[in-house]
Amino acid sequence: MITGAKMICEALKLEGVEVVFGYPGGAALNIYDELYKQNDFKHVLVRHEQGAAHAADGYARASGKVGVAIVTSGPGFTNTLTGIATAYADSIPMVLISAQVANSLIGTDAFQEIDAVGMSRPCVKHSYLVKTIEELPRVLKEAFFIARSGRPGPVHIDIPKDITAIKGEFKYPSEVNMKTYKPTYKGNPRQIKRLASALMEAKKPLLYIGGGCISSNSSEAIRKFVEKTKVPAVCTLMGLGVLEHDNPYNLRMAGMHGSYRANMAMSECDLLISLGARFDDRITGKTSEFAKLAKIAHIDIDPTSISKIIKADFPIVGDVGSVISDLLDEVKEFEFDLSTWHSVLDRHESLYPSFSYEDSDEILKPQWVINECAKITPNANIITDVGQHQMWVAQFFKFNEPRRLSTSGGLGTMGYSIPAALGVAFAKNNEVVLNFAGDGSFLMNIQELMTLTAERKKVINIILNNAYLGMVRQWQTRFYNERYSETNLEDVQPDYEMLARSFGCDSFRVKSKDEFIKAYHECLKSPRTCVIDVVISRFEDVLPMVPAGAAIYNMILPQKLITKDSK
């Protein structure tokens, strides 16, 4: 017989958990007392509960394992809501354990009581309120199973304090059998044959690669498919790295800030095969104009996603890797000739190369900074916050592997990157971890610099500082007649160099190319977390850009195309 708190630790051990991110509090004291006694996994004390959720998220994205966070009741839990919603939007496997007031106090407005399950329900894959010690082992087992299986996602377990104190028999289930939850991994053979026939007849087929391809570890299967069929592919922000950057069939990112060639390919194709993608509005633009010449194949393990936004002609529920391998088997004897289609796409690329910018020796351009980082550390693990810098990284960093980019795609969470980088640093020990942030987003969870220092983890943080909330400023420039309402930060910035040093980091402020290269090499040599405050061009825009609500072929394009990112 062991306590509920001990059961939690035993379950984490049996699930192979290596690291837990968390913050203690009154209702969680029994759990933290057991954490103190055990040596099976590491607990990382973050400085804010939101940081715990983002760190677990970053760990999960980089490692492919379930991220785990533990917090206390009331505000301890509510501070994690942004983090679990971020994970939910991007289908990231996570188990969040929150302590709750004792069962006898639930519903009495007790100190630090909140209806945690009621609040988490809209932004988790599943949630539990544990009411008896007998059900705790089953709930813990199911939580990990649900988080990592099917379409991954966060699972929330709310555990009253008395449950963590009383003893019960710990019988941890060896497997899970839930009548109402049985993910389908194998695609329907008849639908796959139908799609194979359509593919062999298509003149302008196109793959549309989403984050589900990374979640399902399907990159190798997709690369084999592309190599055999020569079908070109576009990807979403979340799908970067599934195909190698320089793969000749990789048309790069599509959507609001996608390449001209990728967006025109989506607009002109006659068969669009979606692989683990959601048809997000940042990809589709005006839905009535989206891929309107094409038959749509939608392959996804989540049946509720299919035809949710764009009606699918070939709906296939299943694991992307399994389905694409079966589809390849169906067409492997067929000789594809897509030379005419590729000629059209090459013409688009020659008109507006993806991606381009006008460089300068007078003022640092963010694209140049990102390109230099990619040249010096091509295999770095990249984390971004949200804003212009996020899109520039997506456009200009050369991703050649899955799980090299951690970014908040679906929810667009500012303040994500520093704690997420903490999680990535634990997942990728001894590898370069590089965080790009804007000067606005960098401040939102800056306290986790202290956690990085305390844990002796090294992250190189690059602030692309234009003294604006840059992406909002860009919209104000183009759609609000340059009325910069509450976005100009020029006169209200901290001294980032001194601020970073107060957290125990090495720090630099740079204004020229030579200064940046010198500082970056200093950071690579340093054993500590570093911050480089990079003063960049204030009015640089992210282009191409599709205005909100417009068709994706109606792009605002760069006026001058002088410097193309090197290959």
In short:
By secondary structure, this protein is of the alpha/beta class. It has 22 helices and 22 strands. The radius of gyration is 24 Å and the shape is globular.
Write structural notes for this entry.
Helices cover 36% and strands 17% of the residues. The protein is an alpha/beta fold and 567 residues long. Helix 19 links the parallel strand 18 and strand 19. Helix 1 runs parallel beside helix 7 and helix 9 packs across helix 14. The protein is globular, with a radius of gyration of 24 Å. The chain starts with a strand and ends with a strand. The C terminus is likely disordered.
What tags apply to this protein structure?
6-stranded parallel β-sheet; single chain; 567 residues; 17% strand; globular; disordered C terminus; alpha/beta
